[in-house]
């Protein structure tokens, strides 16, 4: 077993019965076969759903008196690409990835979207190999500090961006689907959001997710 797989197992806290799952979770599309066969995209698809379930369950437990309207933004922030990328980069996930040499030189293995997707794929692999209890334990360890830091529910990025524009008497945000690709079971949407001359673009597994991420990115740029 390679050093990267050993390191990934240590991070996940589980010795895999089927190491091939973990190897797949750490394979970037650039290092996969034709059409992305063998890449971590399918496991990312599973991991995204498992992660959402675990965090939703956790929030219900931690905030028993909160309404769906407050739990939703908490969930969205915790499972967002920036949050997952922060966790992934802090634990060296990028160094574990199997990425084509040319893409490594371009810095792909440390790009936020790439390491966030890889972390979701690892969660998917862990779930398939060891079940929900093991996946829950890992997710709670990784996100514990972020959950504790949510003293109050964060605002939905689209709502926050709209409020930003209204307070400054600017035009309301305009969202545009720039690209839609991928198979029906794992679609990819690229959305651009504009507020007057300011723009940001992001990718997501659904139109709404891409809109939220684009809004979050633009808010970050406007706040700097």
Short summary of the structure?
The chain is 60% helix and 10% strand.
Salient structural properties:
Ribonuclease iii, N-terminal Endonuclease Domain, Chain A; Double Stranded RNA Binding Domain; 2 domains; 224 residues; 3-stranded antiparallel sheet; single chain; 11 helices; mainly alpha
Helix content: 55-70%
Q: Give the CATH superfamily of the largest domain.
A: Ribonuclease III domain
Residues in β-strands, percent: 5-15%
Catalogue the unreliable spans: none
Q: How are the strands of the largest sheet arranged?
A: 1-2-3
Number of DSSP helical runs: 11
Helix-strand sequence: HHHHHHHHHHEEEH
Annotated CATH topology of the largest domain: Ribonuclease iii, N-terminal Endonuclease Domain, Chain A
Q: How many separate structural domains?
A: 2
| Assembly state (oligomeric) | single chain
What is the terminal separation in angstroms?
45 Å
Question: Measured on Cα atoms, how large is the radius of gyration?
Answer: 18 Å
CATH architecture descriptor text of the largest domain: Orthogonal Bundle
Q: Name the shape in a single word.
A: globular
How many strands?
Answer: 3
Major sheet description: 3 strands, antiparallel
